[in-house]
Structures are given as C-alpha cells and as structure tokens.
Amino acid sequence: MVDASDILYATVSEGSIKVVAREVEGSVAFRSLDELAKELAGRRFARVHKSYLANIDRIYEITPWFSGSYQLRMEGKGGPVIPLSRAQARELRKLLKW
Questions:
Q1: Rounded Cα–Cα distance for residues 23 and 72 (Å)
Q2: DSSP state, 2?
Q3: Which pLDDT tens digit goes with each residue over 55-89?
Q4: N or C, where is the chain less crowded by C-beta within 10 Å?
Q5: Which 3-state string (H, E, C) describes 30-85?
C-alpha cells in the first residue's frame, strides 16, 4: 500500500497500470487510468497525457519540448521525466494557474 500523496505518476505499460511513487513502483489492479483517476478524485492528480496521470503536487519542473508539448520532471532535479501533451497542457495551466 502506498499513500496517494507519495505517488508521482501512473502510466499504462504493457496493458497494465504502473504506479511510480517516491520509494516504490509496481502494478495496480485498475483496468484503466480513468478508473484510477476516479479512485483518486479529490486529490491533486491530473491526466497529463493519454497514457499518464500525474500528481501535480510532485511536479518539479515543466520544460517545453516540441510542437507545443512539454515534459514534466517529477519530484526534484534528478526525478523521472514524463510527457505533457499539448491538449492537456491547457488544462494543467488552469489547475496550476501557470
């Protein structure tokens, strides 16, 4: 069991949902990211890409990438990097007031 606040992001990997937290990573029993997002409703998670759900409190840096998309560095300078799609960037801007 992992506390939701420790989760950095979740992604679809090889047909299953992979959750990456501060200290651990592993698969969860949810069938889709939408299902996981519903479970995490009310917490600070956002769909940042068709294949990624991110804890917005764990975003360290947002970097422009290409064609209007971005990359999110999670949890500090050496943290993992995940994509932020152009479409989802608009929604994230609203959430973060960026």
A1: 19
A2: -
A3: 999 999 999 999 889 999 999 889 999 999 999 99
A4: N
A5: CCCHHHHHHHCCCCCEEEEECCEEEEHHHEEEEEECCCCCEEEEECCCCCCEEEEC
